[in-house]
Structure to design on (318 residues):
């Protein structure tokens, strides 16, 4: 069993990438997700959330491409504290890949690897705020002496976003949904706006509530097809309660905002009579009429019916 000091030495001597920022950025992104409660157990998946976080760190260091997340995720296994767990029935393929010393493509990695994990004691250190900070500072000091300011700024910003996310969830737990018709105008707070987006993406798992598609790239580019949409627009309601939010793909976000679709009292889709569409029947929006939508696991996080009633009255074109 290693001590924190021994793990720090391993982390400060990452192999193969002494000059490339990928492995240290991946570690910073994982540390952030542990801090924000997105990673609760020692199983780190190549999720959209992780790709998003990784891309934000890479963006602090000019000239590097966030699409390469699968490389550090894979090669970190050579550094003594990181392990790859095979997907179901893929144990043999994964060991032969590891034996071959080839680098997998992002698609191969997605197919063969279920998750990455740390040595258990290191993961436990990362769940403890003081030790986690020691590890983070060691990474920044060793790998990013020149980009320290940008990285520190991002860490602080993400910390704030994490706090806003907790507040958003707390508001749902403690207060009924409040929608006042003449709200106090309020400045949109960037950290809170990001927190709203991250929470909506988390509770809907990057899935469009209407068509249930979850589309992203297999590599690290942080592009997903879903938006965190406000049901009553922020400029009208100044309301970024989670229950005024819903995850929608670009197409369904667009038709929702233009009142061509809405949702009824039992979360089924309503399609406007004003829709004019041509094309293959199976892809038409009118097929969505009366279909159930995809909802969060916890009922308290469902879109508020008060917000949907406003959308039906003010935006939907009957
Ligand atoms: Zn959709």
């Amino acid at each position: 069993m290693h001590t924190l000091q021994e793990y720090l030495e391993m982390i400060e001597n990452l192999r193969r990438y002494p000059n490339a920022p990928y492995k240290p950025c991946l570690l910073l992104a994982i540390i952030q997700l542990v801090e924000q409660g997105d990673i609760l157990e020692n199983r780190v998946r190549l999720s959209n959330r992780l790709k998003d976080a990784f891309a934000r760190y890479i963006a602090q260091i000019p000239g590097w491409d966030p699409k390469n997340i699968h490389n550090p995720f894979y090669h970190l296994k050579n550094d003594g504290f990181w392990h790859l767990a095979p997907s179901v029935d893929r144990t043999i393929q994964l060991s032969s890949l590891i034996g071959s010393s080839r680098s997998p493509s992002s698609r191969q990695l997605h197919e063969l690897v279920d998750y990455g994990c740390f040595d258990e004691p290191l993961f436990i250190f990362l769940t403890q705020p003081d030790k986690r900070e020691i590890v983070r500072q060691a990474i920044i000091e060793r790998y990013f002496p020149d980009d320290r300011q940008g990285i520190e700024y991002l860490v602080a910003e993400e910390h704030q976003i994490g706090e806003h996310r907790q507040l958003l969830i707390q508001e749902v737990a403690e207060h009924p949904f409040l929608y006042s018709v003449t709200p106090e105008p309020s400045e949109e707070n960037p950290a809170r706006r990001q927190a709203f987006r991250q929470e909506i993406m988390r509770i809907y798992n990057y899935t469009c509530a209407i068509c249930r598609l979850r589309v992203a790239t297999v590599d690290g580019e942080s592009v997903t097809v879903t938006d965190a949409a406000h049901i009553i627009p922020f400029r009208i309601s100044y309301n970024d309660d989670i229950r005024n939010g819903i995850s929608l793909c670009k197409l369904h976000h667009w038709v929702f905002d233009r009142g061509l679709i809405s949702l009824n009292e039992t979360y089924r889709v309503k399609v406007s009579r004003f829709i004019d569409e041509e094309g293959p029947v199976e892809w038409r929006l009118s097929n969505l009429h009366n279909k159930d939508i995809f909802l969060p696991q916890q009922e308290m996080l469902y879109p508020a019916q008060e917000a949907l009633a406003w959308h039906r009255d003010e935006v939907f074109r009957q």
